[in-house]
Amino acid sequence: MRAKSDSDEDGGLDSLLDTMTNVVGILVLVLIITQMSVAEVVSRITAENRVAPEQVEELSEVLRKKQEEQDELQRIMVDPLNVDAERQLEELEKKKELLERRKQLLAAKNKERNEYAMKLDQDRQTAKKNTTEIEETKVKRDELTQLITTMATQKAELEARLEKTPNVKAPPAVEITVPDPRPAPSGTKPLLFVCSANSLYPLDVEFFRGRAELRAKEIIARLGLDRDPKAGINPELFTKPFERLKDQNDYFEAEYFVLNELSPRIRLKPRSGRGISEREVGSARSRFRSQGVASINPQQFYARFFVLPDSHEVYVTARAAFTDAGILSGWDPQPEAWTYETTVPGGITLGPPKPPAPTPPPPTTPPKPANVID
Is 372 a residue whose pLDDT tops 50? Predict the structure, then answer.
């Protein structure tokens, strides 16, 4: 081969230089175009997406929180080769204690909230109750106000009438004898009176007892209830016909009954409207005073009054009448529902007779002590 000439080498260098010049030019053009495109894009994005300051602050806060979370993760995610086991256990125990305290605090908060809710409910109920009581009190207050107004009006009317009423001389004082409880004189018998419905009822007990005895014995004889002395009088067979019996006098009506299937008895009830009025008892010319009280011998009899709560006035009047006649008196206050009861004489007892009382054994002589010498 022949050696290259200098002209050939110059031509190659020129071609290489031209090529590099062209490449550099192209790169410069590409760079200019790229910069222009980026600037245009940035301008367009900036123009189209303007961010408000509030959004910037919000995004900054979010970025800060994310950064804190990242830092926390980096703190937790340590290199396993550099882990301190004891320290990790201590931190774990501390976290467990912290978690337990938070649970307790939460439970306490829940309990406090429940108690507050219950107290709030109780307060509501109390408020409702107080409201109701206030309304009721208001109604009562209005009623009392109306009553006070009415009473004030009546008082004014009474005062006006009192001013127009002439003065009347007071009646003479009534002398009464203060009761002096003591035993009745020996040998005297009581005359019984019942003070009921503010009327006086003379009570002839023996009249009713005698008639009841005859009627009871008539039932026993008619039904043959006394044929078996050991069995005695059958209470069931005796009671039915006995309790159907009726009796009365001018002042009382008799009710026949059997007490505890054992004892025939009679109950004496005052007849309504048949008693002696207080006015008649107090009148010196009444039949009760002139024929009744005047005929009683004070040496043989005394008056005994059974007084019900509604009849103290007639009792006081009757006692004064007997005192004027020199007859002693006594009284027995009784409850409102009281009635006079008495037994039927004649030894009539229902059921089998009671067995005779056993003879008591003779007294035993205690043994003598061993160290006693006769």
Answer: no
